[in-house]
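Fold it.
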Amino acid sequence: MPTFTAPDGTELAYHVAGSFPGPGPALLCLPGGPMQDSAYLGDLGGITAFRRLIRLDLRGTGGSAVPEDPSSYRCDRLVEDVEALRVHLGLDRVDVLGHSAGANLAVLYTARYPERVSRLVLVTPGTAAVGLDTSGEERLAAARRPWREEEPWFPEAYAALEELAAGRGTAETFGKVAPFFHGTWDAAARERHAAAQRERNGEAAAVYGGEGAFDPAAARAALAEFGRPVLVVAGEGDANTPVPTARAYAELFPASALAVLEGAGHFPWHDDARWFATTVDAFLG
């Protein structure tokens, strides 16, 4: 497992899939969680058939070391870790993919180093960095998919989502809405959900979006000037980042496209690997 040194001296790990120099250009992938081991991204539905996939283990996760300063888990401070990896790889510019909460880091990196990003892919993106709000009704509408409503777990999960949408939920309530993050709530999805709880650095996650991490107005202004291609990928049934939110995100950029996978949740590469890999590869060219 290769490593490099962050500006503050923390040793960070990354993973390369696909033979070097790879079947295509490098795609630098930033995980969500926030602060989850990047292993959950896998090969992103088989993108390694088209290009070299580089997954960064954010500090304190996966194979990366725990920093001396816990405040360095804050999202805006992680930007310099991403830049240090680009320099370490010897790449003048990179294609960047951010999933979920990792999209916040991806757009902050793009805002700070626009000249270093060739193309940007935001997969079911978190929106804190750009200050987009999602209404409770949008989340409920995303959850009410025909393939879900006959499932035995649906009534309890939907009732929990209604509580959260009304601002009355608890941590226990949040746990009950997990099915609405997945296209299909089968045994494989349940295991992935359980693994995510084990592989996430809770201490780091609490700092990631802390006070000072985001300046939405400044980020939106910078992204409005980013003229290179941007792809936003959404899942039709994703209650975390519903399609209207994903569409509003895409509209923040002057050169963007929105791709929506029917029957998908927050992890679209698990719902249709071929669609996901070919859609992203076609965009990246």
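The chain has a mean pLDDT of 95.
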